[in-house]
Amino acid sequence: MSVDSVGLRCPRCDNPVSADARFCASCGQSLTPESDEAVAARQARLAAAAPAPLVEKMRAAKLTGERKVVTALFADVVGSTTLAESMDAEDWTQIINEAFDLMSKAIFHYEGTIAQLQGDALLAFFGAPVAHEDDPERAVRAALDMIESINEYAAQLKRTHDIDFRIRAGINTGPVIVGNVGSDLRYEYTALGDAVNVAARVQTAAQPGDVLISSMTQRYVEPVFEFEDLGDVQVKGKSEPVHLYRVTGLRAEAGPKRGLSGVGLSSPLVGRATELKTLTELFDVAKAGRGRLAVILGEPGLGKSRLLVELRNAVGADIADRGVPAAATWVEGRCVSYGRALPYHLVFDLVWSLLGIPRGETGNVPRESIDARIDALLGADAADVKPYIAHLLALPLNPAEADRLQLDPETLQGRYVSAIARIVRGLADKGPLVLVTEDIHWADPASVEILVQLVPLLTPLPVLGLFVSRVETDAPGWRLISQIKAGFGDAVTEIRLQPLDEQSSRELVSNLLEIESLPEDVRQAILKRSEGNPFFVEEVIRMLIGRGAIVSAGDHWTATSDIGQVEIPETLHGLLLARIDQLPDSAKRSLRVAAVIGRQFQVRVLERVLEESPA
Q1: Which of 134, 468, 465, 443 is closest to 307 using CA atoms?
Q2: Among 60, 159, 185, 298, which lies 20 to 30 A Cα-Cα from 255?
Q3: Lowest mean pLDDT among 292-306, 480-494, 510-524
């Protein structure tokens, strides 16, 4: 506790507390410091639960004094003062330890880091020491998982101890300066821009079981989650209100994470006419009964997903069971960025799409509904397929099916492949099929193995298989890309997307902003920062609109006197840092030195500075 002219104050919320209080009445912070041994034991318990690959990434990070944009998640036990005072201290400690175990699993699952433990609360970072391009989304998903697991634990505690145990969480995104990770997987940090403090204040405004996020976080995750807009809320310790949102769940179908549709701007496809023509011609061949495969490769933001959208529109495809006439059935499986450690996650997504189940409804579909869909598609052949699809999707099995599926893993995987292939054939019998797997660079090894066996079964069918990936040759998914490229001769086409040339980049900016009224220097600044990457173009424009540097003036856009310097948007920081973190230490050092030298330089200058500067 701290002392001032008023008296004793809580170290977390800074509210006055009485000298004999064990817990702060405002926020529940313990006012009786735990022994060093107890704190060390709890931290060691959580550190031991961290997955080995995450530990390796954390150990490899050298962050002393480094400024990072992170998403801070602050979670605590609601009403811990009353709960702790009504229980034996040893029992309460055991309950808190088990709660922290559950909470840490959610954090580690999304590759977050526990920065601090504070009595009945914890602070986690997403974005340091391991950066991902979607750290705000990971933080919100972790908080929702945390709430769900604690709710299940609370039901157990109600039965055994007759207590109401709930947690709440607050999330904010902003800059911090971080230090290296210690032996207990914690690291030192100094908050800049009040990023961590705001997360703690947001959490105190939450109701039991709620996840509240600041507007700084909401703008990153708006396409993925549903929210209740709480407006400006006055929180303790802040002179100005904070705009807050309550997360109510995942969207049934995630909106586009990229693009400017949210501000009413769009552009026709630019600079990809040749690639689109190639894909439509491949579809025509597949529609005639000769299956075709295409591998679409490109760095982040070059327009892989946009190309798929344009192809879908061009061939008149729609998802299975949408209930509208379509020239082709569109089936799509997507990987998630944290999916390499989730066995079969890509296959799950693909199978749900084959069965015509929207992503947002997969957790509520009864086994009977799945069986009915397979029956309608396969008729008499459905009986040999339903048990394996149900087992793959972790749906209930009857005793006879359970006995039938007592197989070794290799045989069972082969049955999965056969069952999926029969569903694909059933759809293809009704008309041409476009089968898409996106973001294969994030695929898990089990899904890759399934797809390696499935792909050869597609080529005799009216199926266009599209396999979309970044060029990451060390990713498990690259095995699938390599085998497709090597094994199917004329049946496979590789499309590598390159940055837009200057003419196409100018056309994109003009389409988005009706640029005639915009000064040439502003146009050049946008083009310079984006370097031919369509996503970067859009994000630079979004940043300028957001800060009022570009404003709508009727039917055109114009620059204001506040245009200032065109910087790299914050929305790109996570993407760029995630890419940088994948580099070896020597390359990171070269990159840091190069950034100090300037935007352009001769190689011998960089070599000279590297020789003279300490490692």
Answers
A1: 468
A2: 298
A3: 510-524
